Amino acid sequence: MHFLDEGGKPTARYHAFLDDTQWKKVLADGIKDAYLDLFRVSKNAQGLTREQLTGKIKSVGEGKISPAVLRNMTKTFMELVKLADFKTEAPQEAVPEAPPGGAPAEPGEPPAITGIGAKVEQPSQAGPTLVYRIEIVLPAVRDQAIYDAIFRSAKEHLLK
């Protein structure tokens, strides 16, 4: 939804989202970006019924989305839409425009992934780029030995 940039830093859209007078409009804009392919297929996707939405997402995903994921995607979209305001336009400076076709702006930059089922094409000048994001859910305990063991194990297994 472009609330964070590639480095994990808040974007202008995120800061606009914090404004109590426009957060619903900014959220609608973010939903349109996150579900870009869905909005290409159905311009007013926010008004679809659950059944219509499920069908559109299944179609956009080329039938490759499992029933459980499809159900969760539909629920997530519908809940986000309930919070957003699609009737008014969000401020234009909220997020910079993506280059056409999702191509990277600079050589060597990873390609943008837009919408559901987007295919990633690597730029011809650069080799494949992989990004791994690892989340460690820490237990709610005060024993330092547990934290030390978790991070020692992560270091041992991830930095081989």
Q: Can you walk me through this structure?
A:
The chain has 160 residues and is an all-alpha fold. It has one domain (1-160). Helix content is 42%, strand content 0%. The chain has helices spanning 12-17, 23-34, 36-41, 50-60, 67-83, 144-158. The longest helix has 17 residues, at 67-83.
State mean pLDDT (0 to 100 scale).
78
Q: How large is the count of helical segments?
A: 6
Distance between the termini: 34 Å
Strand residue content: under 5%
Structure characteristics:
160 residues; 6 helices; mainly alpha
List the helices and strands and how they pair.
Layout: H1 12-17, H2 23-34, H3 36-41, H4 50-60, H5 67-83, H6 144-158
Concise description?
Helix content is 42%, strand content 0%.
